[in-house]
């Protein structure tokens, strides 16, 4: 079995991330990662008639740009895997419709980028696919109107609320030996997430709802593999934001795997500055996707980072479950990324 | 590579379906498959306070019953894969929350059962998971109120409309040699679906919208593998219903792979009788799930069927995309099921 411990998966071929692309919206383009994004789209409609269609265009543009940067076309990938926050993941479907390759739709809320990396890594490692394309997106406007209120209301937001990132990230994973020399990162191991729900019901405090799932995944990863936080140059959570970031630090301390604040970051805190008035930070499927597919992979390519644990977190609620008083199930999937030997 | 032709995947270990369970609602329990269902749930709330929670209970009960029938508990599976039609696949998430094992959420609309089989087969074949649990559900009441109108309106339905099946199906796939003697079916090959959209916009005629995707997948499967419809005891589509069933027959004729009506069935036409007044037939993620996990796998277990091509179809629209005048993207994923040698 290609497994170690309770639930960590080993990938003997260590599939390679051979290309990535990140598109971001105007506000994200005014943030600290501006220079790392492939493209900043100022128009929140991206030339389309609706925010949902705009989000689909974000996905499609990121996916095709990722392929182009590798000198490839959609036909060079054996499948597109991806999703988003919209009902019926319509942005991912509309994007995949234009690519004419097999499509596997995923829903892991804001953990979708990591879920797609998990699946694409196993499918390429096993030789079931040559290359697989992973894409995730979110859009502030489409998310607000679906999950919260019409933008025109100008609702007040509590300090624990996060700001949905407008953007899409895409990366191409290959299991082909001939692609390995151009690897940006190799993927040797994965730890899939279990749902953890400690009873948080406040949809304006999803960081707190997701942090226990993040701690569960990190602890299983360290215990399964016999590693510790200090074995990584960087440990990255998806979009816990300020509140969840601090809860995770505390939980990991309690569980005996304390994280070092100098090597732990949360994408929700990286994508905006505090001055951008996003309260607890960024969120959305696009949050971890654009951070990973821009600065993180650039730093791996430049050998500033050698060993990274990327973990995206998801809050698996729906508006209906919230209205029915349900608590928020959290999940977190993790993948190890290693810069190749050069 | 474990591939053949353009896009068909070969599974050298031929993972085994070692257990299955199907729960159905009252109307489905009055239909032709009544004797094949493990349990018929007369109460459409299944003892819960809402239809969404009832649907989650359908999923959880089917999943745990599937495991129990194999003498197993959730911890014996390395992951649960599944989804449903509800926004943010809340039924699948709430069900997986109770199982405390890794969860990979999928969205393929009514193709979800097949999508989960595809992924679970590759993950177990490659030794990344010992066993993986595939579950899909739908519920007439939760689907109607989310996609169409409040039930209390008593809307008129056009003849092309289909009736969302209330039910859940679950099956357990194993890649462990020691599990193979109890195989109900083995899975040697898969053909993942591409999105095909020929411009149908009528959300009351999803069979017609999905049939071209079904034809695309079937033709790729036959061409990739050098097989023909006559190589199968049965070819099964998910929920094309009467309209889509007839469109598929015509498309396959045109494309040079004519289907024999005596060995081609659609789950949407199997689950209800015409007298049950469901217009064009059944639909929903639960439709193909309950038919596969009851009669089809029972007939494979009894050697009445030896070689089956199971293909579930999905209409990847959302209410938002429909309201915005969008056309309906269709998809269809296929898996070959073979009764084991005895």
Tell me what you see in this structure:
The structure is a homodimer of 342-residue chains. Chain A is an alpha/beta fold and 342 residues long. Helices cover 33% and strands 23% of the residues of chain A. In chain A, the strands form three sheets. Chain A has a seven-stranded mixed sheet, sandwiched between helices. In chain A, strands 3, 4, 5, 6, 7, 9 and 10 form a seven-stranded mixed sheet that branches. In chain A, α2 packs across α3 and α6 (206-225) packs parallel to α7. The longest helix of chain A is centred in the middle third of the chain and has 20 residues, at 206-225. The radius of gyration of chain A is 18 Å and the shape is globular. The two termini of chain A are 30 Å apart. The model of chain A has no long low-confidence stretch (mean pLDDT 96). Chains A and B meet through α3, β6, α4 and α10 of A and α3, β6, α4 and α10 of B.
Which structural traits does this protein have?
homodimer; alpha/beta; seven-stranded mixed sheet; 16 strands
